[in-house]
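Objective 1.3, modelling of assemblies. Example input:
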Amino acid sequence: MFRTAQILFGVSVVIFLLMPIVAILPLAFTSSVFLTYPIEDYSLRWFVELATADAWRLSIMNSLIIGLGATLLSTILGTLASLGMRSKALPFANLLRTMFLLPMVVPAVVLGVGMQMLFVNLGLASTYPGVIVAHAVLCVPFVIVSVSASLQGIDPSVEKAASSLGASPVMVFRRVTFPLALPGVISGAVFAFATSLDEVVITLFVAGPNQRTLARQMFSSIRENISPTVVAAALLLIIGTLCLGGLAALLRWRQERSALKAVP
Amino acid sequence: MSRAPARERMGALLLIVPLLAFLAVFFLWPLWTMVRASVVDDTVSRVLPRTAAAIVSWDGQGLPPTQVQQALVEDLRQADDQQALGETVRRLNSAVSGFRTLLTRTTNAVRDGTDAVAVDLGDLDRRWKEPRFWLALRDAVPPYTDRNLLAAVDMKRDAGGAIVSEDPGASANRLIMFRTFLVAAIVTLASAAIGLPYAMLAAAVTGWKRTALLLAVLVPLWTSLLVRTTAWFVLLQNEGLINRALQAMGLIDSPLPLIFNRVGVVIAMTHVLLPFMVLPIYSVLLSVPRNLMQAAASMGAGPLRAFWRVLLPLSLPGLLSGSLLVFMVAIGYYITPALVGGANDQMISSVIAFYAMGTANWGLAGALGVILLLVTMILYFIYGRLSKSPQLLGA
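Predicted structure (tokens):
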């Protein structure tokens, strides 16, 4: 009796969690303009629309440009800072770490309002660099978490062994530390890109019509006039983020496995 | 020996400085700009600096002394920033109507006259003989104001300067804050009601079952928030899958209203935030020895008693962190209420966005933002104290 209830509960929560995502995807292939079941006829017309309509094409390009820019910026800054935070000699390490994670906590609308006011004065409002730095701020915490975790997994004695064998600090970093941290850096970059891809709120405040991203375009088309194009775009985003998430998980898993191997 | 740590510290600092500088400029400065906008009101004092300096000595009785009037004449003569002057006029006119024509006329007259001639404002326009214009000017010159912060909580200063409540019906900010906390609380409760037993189940089973249960939490977490909200938007429609299915099963005759109301917002937000509840509880339960429940059972406790006395107390820290996390994220939510909610479900973030983008009322947007930021930071501080590693899940 208790077991049946358990199974029933588990299954229904799993359905609640996964059903919405799974249930809407077939609608991307409908030939109708309405987002309803049953689907009478299947077609790829909404994907064609996505690839040809100017607004959608521009927004996909923008998402890629802004996503890559924000990923590059946040991964470089975050990786450097994570390396710096490894040192025990660093003062206020905890405070710094909290500060680096704060962009994840501050409500997006609050940050967006502040950025909009400031960016107008700095001449960054409605520019690509403006949107890229705004996204990069949000991406930094993910890079810090990921890179710090992989740096923590490095056995210091490996680096000591390298330097005792005569490697210079730069050499130790290039040949030992960095290769070991690389999976963490890559998975941090993946999270950063996924974050930028999904970001809407800050984009609403700092981007102009020319910097409209895919997520921003989806947001306004849901608001104004929803069509299956939005679901087709959602399918692209799901495939994109699941691939990226899978990649990150794979890297983490490989790292854990190699960490286990390193300890006899 | 003492030089090596110093050099190491230098190196570490050099690595951190780029990110620190980046966040100082693009994260802290925007927040500071917003906080400043909520309390600074220097449009008038920037355009009329001499008047602002002179008028403070006036006691507010009768008309201000002549040096104040001469300062105003001098300020208007020197004012060359047309845009700033226009803002000043707008600001004063909203305090006392008629100020627009009065200032325009005065400015024109003052500019026509030569510098040497002292202008008598009362002769120029009779309205300068009315104290209410001067009082409005005196109220507008202090560069700092609590007007916005008070307005954010539906308060204002009356004519005597005392803080009083806004007339009921004049503003709805308190109602919206109450609604924000209410929706966040309902979502937190719903997530806890589903998340606690789910996490316990995931910790109790092993093998593929555990993997499946955890994947079901992680896949939505990896999926874009916008996609999940889109999904609910489509599903909850009157013609959507849920209503169609219920109708097909014969459970309902006419579609249930699920979208553009509180029900839809709570369902969609619970779905989005459930992983933040499940994962902290699960990670706490993982550290509970598996044989503890068996020990309780062997000592004669029934399953219910063992759950109540052993498993529940042990999962409380996770439940608390999860609840704080869900509540903290929920109060700042914008996208889901904006898309799935109706006009009566808009939360504080939507109001901030409305003031900032719709009416360009930066002061009020900033003041509401300060309140939201403050509440979030307090919750985050408590959360950081409770859990050992103060970082959010999902990364």
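Chain A touches chain B through 85 residues (CB under 8 Å).
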